[in-house]
């Protein structure tokens, strides 16, 4: 027995691969990104007897071509890192399609073990898979597993260990027929002339990939010494035709073996189909989807309330304890109380929302409804250049942009996801409402509701317009082709959902927490120093910056006080209200602040409306910015988001103050 | 369940959900109505009311399909009952959270009576129905 | 149902080739060929859209697009725009 082996988990999406991974590794997990890409890499360890086993969860893929970044990551890992064994997790209820990936894994020539997952469900449907015959025909051991109940996992590990010992490993292959086999043989002969290439990649596999016109395989050839010879052979071959013929041949082999290893593998009308009739109904499909979204929204924000109050209360009493402790020097007390504890509070306050939303998204995804939601909304979202899955994050954005942006993880295509992230800050989140309530209440006492509604619509319009603009300019193209499997409905398990919630939530705390803290600290410094100035007043650095910015915002009808308030709004947009209170010297009392605002000659209804629009659009708050940075993995896009927001806000506010008097004059 | 029972269930729940849905929505829109409906534990909630109307529509679609023989009536009834349970649970959780917040951090009094909104109590029977029915789903539906 | 449902059991008696987006649900057909760009074609082949494979159009989304298809015992949805790239022979279930 080896002391230490490495196992890779491969398989189609929705086959319960992550459930098996979680069951095998328990809490010994490590999540990171694959080098150079934003695809998540999960690895973990477990033991069997004396052997330490490292398990790597590969991205879910349908094949190992270079169709998507997930496929490239999965196959590069298998080829380059050479795990001791690959466990192919198969959905036993969908045996035929899953076997296609098996044929491709076989061609890679790695030791392979099949996990026939969800076997209980398959057996309930009357599907019986003969594992002895799989071993006989494919020469691959197959193990019956039920990941959700932890059945068969020990046996799976034992089979993997045995397979890792059985080396050297025999060549598995599918015969592609005389003509294609001749091409393969010719290319293999050429490939073997470059020892460097032949030792790194299985020659037959590389030859097959080349015949299929695989770009990634082409790149490997271009760097070798036999480029010209290989190209000469390939030039005479119609790769498109060969590719179809080879896929056809693989399915033919599967079709020939299927009746022998599996009985009643053809699925009948099932529960999923019955439910789908209703939830994708022509008239009821969209209303049901929207009603379920209301439920998600209600849970995310209503259920979080007591937790947020608790966090608020704890942080508040910590801050007042520090402030009342008479700590010397006084600036240190202020740093601890206002700077650090306040900043920590702004990290923690989002945790209830984020965790609940991530839990719900996980339930929606695991139950299979997310695929239906995307199916139902796709046509509508496609019209503005986004896939159906973008709808949910946009909707959640009305509550809070932070969990909404974390929720974009369900969107596979990189550009689709980036656009969805970039337009999300324009969805008017709950923190902006206090600003609207104050200003609309003061300047539009009779039409406050209408004004607030117009602001929400303005946000949506800007989001849609921006999505359209990004598609036409910086991120050209169309939403990724919609080839989406509709997985059968399954009862989601709380364990998996909690796991997902914790994984992502923890990443938020680790990655975004630091940025939010840093942002809060900078604002504290600006508002507190020079020491002695009242917090956030004209004499503080923030006040000085406000005066510096005044000429810039003057065309919008804003004075230095507004500029300072907007600066503080960077921490959280609702702080704009409190800052205005400090700057107008009215404190917390809103009615006297309303009076002070109305008495300010520089503010009128038009300027107030421009200010509300500016607050809506101007830049994501620090927490949103932190998750944009985390999810895009790029400071460039984070910076773009800030710059774009400010420019749009400035333009819109400018148009409002110029055109506003004509329109709002009558109110 | 006999077909007649199912029709009656679909009809009664369809009408109940529709009635409360419309009332909640109107209470949210017209402040004058809200004062009167509050006595019957009907919240003035536009969105919640519309959600009740959606559930009503699924029950009534089931009734319609039973009636015209368009088929899938049972599927609609099953999904409608599942939606009842989902929204009932969500409403219950959010009211409990609201109550906790008021009791622990707020100054206003709160009593568990506040949990008895239509969205919650309308879900009780469907929840019982679905747990009985679940063991036989979808086997007996495939024949439809 | 239209007349194409009257099958003779022979594949050669199928209707002339059209594209998958023209098969309105419920309806069935067989794949003839795929004319999609390389990346999409590879994915479609892996998913079982190989010449001769039987496809059943199950239902359309509420707004008419995308459409859900059953192939090789599982279901997948495609936008009409992408389904247009798949040539099929209708009535060949």
Describe the structure in your own words.
The complex is a heterotrimer of chains A (667), B (144) and C (93). Helices cover 62% and strands 8% of the residues of chain A. With 667 residues, chain A is α/β, with parallel strands linked by helices. In chain A, the strands form two sheets. A seven-stranded mixed sheet of chain A has the order 2-3-4-1-5-6-8, with helices on both faces. In chain A, strands 7-9 form a two-stranded antiparallel sheet. In chain A, strand 3 (40-48) and strand 4 (51-57) form a beta hairpin. The mean pLDDT of chain A is 84. With 144 residues, chain B is mainly alpha-helical. Chain B has one domain (3-141). Chain B is built from six helices and no strands. In chain B, helix 1 packs antiparallel against helix 3 and helix 3 packs antiparallel against helix 4 (73-105). With 93 residues, chain C is an alpha+beta fold. Chain C has a single domain (3-90), classed as Ferrous iron transport protein A (FeoA) (SH3 type barrels). Chain C is 14% helix and 34% strand. Chain C has a six-stranded antiparallel sheet with strand order 1-6-2-3-4-5. In chain C, strand 4 (67-71) and strand 5 form a beta hairpin. The longest helix of chain C has 9 residues, at 38-46. The model of chain C is unreliable at 1-12 (pLDDT under 50). Classes of the chains: A alpha/beta (667), B mainly alpha (144), C alpha+beta (93). Chains A and B meet through helix 13, helix 14 and helix 15 of A and helix 3 and helix 4 of B.
